[in-house]
Design a protein that fits this description.
Length: about 400
């Protein structure tokens, strides 16, 4: 008999009832160090006082009115995002998946309104993840994502990750945009080198294409800058964000230049819940913390400390771990042991990590984790590796 919750997840046998900072507590009182943050969502940790206050204050006033009316909290958050980014305008969604849908629509509508309706094709890369909507799975293109869900939405051309020559060769009169994650999350914490992002920006400029960046997982302070593309010194035309922007509240957004968004006029897109007072009140509190230069400097300091610990872990356990990947506090351990075994062994040592492709485990801790948390993470990961080496996961 099918369970009342549709069984689309292979859930771990864990139930958490409370969280604080980088720690989660189960009903029976066990405390887990959370290096997953709900898959890079709890950017300020669990139950951050500023987010609790923002949500509580707003909940006592107004929850939802719909986008038929002006929403002051939405305007405030849009202004903060425009101030701190390349963007001129913002549309609010509830998730990264919804952000992907709009990014695709925006790029195609741009060329339609420019009198080039044939330009609908978007170049994407293997290992990518852009959500599980029809557009998202078609953009990623992997069999794991698409099998059984055909016919797929047309208009995507898939290239190998890192194939710059292939990008130029793939451009035709039908090409509208290039869509890429500056750091792949689900794909195994694979970072696009700065030089490659610069080259993609140049290719788009040369051929009159739009550059769409998916920063749903790598954005909002995760790499040590507010947005990951800032490390390369380039800007996109359209960018998808979600996850960390809500700090745990369902919130996403599409940021765009005035030019790229020029086709999105009244009636071309909408969302019932997107940008509601509750979500945007929390998003404003998140931005007030993460956009601060001193906060980001601390993220980078702690990222360096954590990476140093992880490099030592790889050196101490070469039979379990192969290398450290990633940027900032979006790190991956490439495993020699099966990554799912490492994740499961972590549960035995009250440690949360997240699996990814290419036999990687993701370490996506709250950006607020402490030096003591980092030391404890190293101790528990060392215990995990030792247990696996001994054959006792």
């Amino acid at each position: 008999m099918i369970p009342s919750v549709l069984p689309t997840y292979n859930r771990a046998p864990l139930e958490f009832v409370e969280g604080a900072g980088a720690w989660l507590t189960t009903a029976d009182g066990r405390r887990f160090l959370d290096l997953g943050s709900g898959i890079a969502v709890n950017a300020l940790g669990h139950a951050h006082p500023a987010l609790v206050e923002a949500l509580t204050n707003q909940a006592q006033k107004l929850w939802h009115v719909s986008n038929l009316y002006h929403i002051p909290q939405q305007q405030a958050l849009a202004d903060k995002l425009v101030e701190h980014s390349f963007a001129d305008t913002v549309f609010f969604t509830n998730s990264g998946t919804e952000s992907c849908e709009l990014a695709v629509k925006m790029a195609r509508k741009y060329f339609h309104d420019k009198g080039q309706p044939e330009r609908v094709e978007i170049i994407t890369f293997d290992g990518s993840f852009h959500g599980r909507s029809s557009a998202g799975i078609a953009a990623a293109g992997s069999e794991k994502m698409t099998k059984g869900f055909g016919p797929l939405l047309p208009g995507f051309k898939h290239l190998m990750f890192g194939d710059l020559d292939g990008v130029t060769n793939a451009i035709t009169e039908q090409t509208a945009a290039i869509l890429i994650e500056p750091v792949q999350g689900e794909g195994g914490i694979r970072a696009v080198p700065d030089a490659e992002l610069k080259a993609l920006r140049a290719i788009c400029d040369e051929h009159g294409l739009l550059l769409i960046l998916d920063e749903v997982q790598c954005g909002v302070g995760r790499t040590g800058k507010l947005f990951a593309h800032e490390w390369a010194g380039i800007t996109p035309d359209i960018m998808m964000v979600a996850k960390g922007i809500g700090g745990g509240f369902p919130l996403g957004a599409v940021l765009a230049t005035e030019e790229a968004a020029s086709g999105m006029t009244a009636g071309t897109h909408g969302s019932t819940y997107g940008g509601n007072p509750l979500g945007c009140a929390v998003g404003c509190a998140v931005m007030d913390h993460i956009a601060d230069a001193a906060f980001l400097a601390e993220v980078n300091r702690k990222a360096g400390l954590l990476r140093q610990k992880l490099e030592g872990l790889v050196a101490d356990h070469p039979e379990v771990f192969e290398e450290v990947r990633g940027a900032g506090l979006m790190l991956g351990l490439k495993c020699k042991a099966a990554n799912l075994d490492v994740v499961k062994a972590g549960y035995e040592h009250e440690l949360i990590t997240v699996p990814a492709a290419d036999n990687v485990i993701r370490l996506l801790p709250p950006l607020t984790l402490t030096d003591d948390d980092i030391a404890e993470a190293h101790r528990r990961l060392d215990a995990v590796a030792t247990s696996l080496s001994a054959g006792n996961p």
